[in-house]
Every structure is written in C-alpha cells, then in structure tokens.
Amino acid sequence: MFVEVLVVGIGSLAALVVFLVALGGAKNAYNLAPLAESTVVAGLALAFAYALGILMDRGADSVLTSKRRRLRARYFASSATYAEARRAISLNPDLVARADYARSRMRICRGWVFNSLLLFVAIDFAIMRFPLEGRILLISATTAIGALLVLGFYAAWRNITLTSYRKLALQAQPMVPHLFPQQAATGTRDASEGSAL
Question: In angstroms, rounded to a whole number, what is the distance separating the alpha carbons of residues 47 and 115?
Fold first, then answer.
C-alpha cells in the first residue's frame, strides 16, 4: 500500500506545486528554483507526498463511495454478503494476492481521477499567470487532455472495481453457495466470462 499511496501523493504534490508556483509568479519561482536541488527538500517532499496520498486516497474513496456501493450491489445483496465472500476466500493465498493486486490498481486509478482534475486546473492557472505565447491554444489543449485523463482513470477505476466484485462472487460462490442463489442458474456462463478476465 505504501507504493500506491505514494504514486497518488506524488500527483497531488505536483498539482499543489504547480498551483503555488503560478500563485507566486515567475520571479519568485525563479528565486526558489535552487531549493529543488536540496536533498533535505527532496526528503521532505517525499514524506509530504505520502501524507497527501493518504489524504487524497481517503477523499477519493469518500466521493466515490455511493458509486462503489452501487457497483457492489450487482453481485452482493448486502455488506454482510460481501464480507462473508471475502472471508470465504481469505484462506486461499493465491486468490487473496490477486484481490490485493486488483485493489492496488483500483486505488491508484481512483486517486488519479482527482489528481488529473487538480493537475489540469493548476496547469491552466499557471498558463494564465505566466507570459506565454499561444495561451488560448495551451489552455484548450491542457483542458482537453485533463478531461480525457479524468474520464480514462474513472473508466479504469469502474472497470477494475466491477471486475473485482464479479470475480469475488464467482470465487466465493462454491464455498458459500447459499449467499448467491441468483447465480445458480447462470454459474457456468459467468464462470466462463470470469476466467477470461
């Protein structure tokens, strides 16, 4: 989890730095540039990026909680059913490792939905603050790329989340069949779909 939180936090830190540099102006940015070469500053930045990653991860999770619950409801009737399914596969290290890997990718995509938004807003702000040529074109391009990244990371998060719930339901169904009566008739078809994921 350390790496995924750091990956999210570095993006958040980048957006914050771009915003602060734009707010401070070109002259202040030039005067502060030598600090970027300091080992102490680099260490502090890494620590702060990790802290920001935790904040962004929790914030993104809170914002997307209702959507995540709706996706989970496609395969699990309740939170108790979901918890029972997770318990059922917890004794299989291979399945647990695969689920952890999927959750890691999901957290990164979830965090970068919001990082992408913050980054393109901060970059647009910087473009407006600095004396650059072709400002309208640069802002248009940044906004378009940012919007595509937000949509791309959201689509990836949604796909990984939905696939994880489907796989968990398929894997737990043989161990706790009473939890998934609706899958009894379609178990063969769903299993063949799940094996291809």
Answer: 18
